[in-house]
Write a structure and sequence with these properties.
mainly alpha; 62% helix
Length: 165
């Protein structure tokens, strides 16, 4: 591994560590995420100070150059982080969807109308797709029927069950 690559790895590692610490001080980065990046920077410094690790690993894996091993390692670690972030994003989307549904049910049960397609801005929503009455608002006394939107937890025979209004 060339001296230039080793110097670049050390410089990038120091910059990443400084940037992470700066973001922590401004409360823009969680401690969990910061630990990932600090360990990543530490391992890059380790690889640059002890190139024998990269040489040994590249020979073990059959990679021709230790520099190629370093780049492959970096790509692999970033892909793992990307996958982890994708999982976190999926969980957050699910939680947000659940929260929105719960809020709509609470508003509906409290007597307030839950927002519907008529409350969306003009040109959006399902009515805009077929061009029919995109801006039509229901009358003030129009409420959805209990049969149309039963509660997801409604048990047969309960007051929330369809047909038991």
């Amino acid at each position: 591994m060339s001296l230039a690559l080793r110097v670049v790895l050390i410089a990038v590692s120091v910059l990443v560590t400084v940037f992470v610490l700066f973001k922590i001080r401004k409360a823009q980065l969680n401690i969990d995420d910061s630990l990932y990046w600090i360990f990543f920077a530490f391992f890059l410094v380790l690889l640059s100070l002890f190139p024998g690790i990269a040489i040994w690993a590249s020979e073990l894996l059959g990679i021709l150059s230790p520099a190629n091993f370093v780049f492959l390692f970096i790509i692999f670690v970033v892909l793992i982080k990307l996958f982890d972030l994708s999982i976190d994003l999926s969980v957050q989307k699910h939680r947000l969807n659940h929260l929105v549904q719960k809020l709509a049910l609470m508003q509906y049960r409290a007597g307030g109308d839950a927002p519907g397609p008529a409350d969306l801005p003009a040109g959006t929503g399902p009515a805009a797709a077929d061009g029919s009455a995109a801006n039509a608002k229901p009358s003030a006394d129009a409420k959805p029927s209990a049969d149309a939107n039963p509660s997801p937890d409604a048990q047969p025979g309960s007051p929330d069950a369809p047909g038991n209004a």
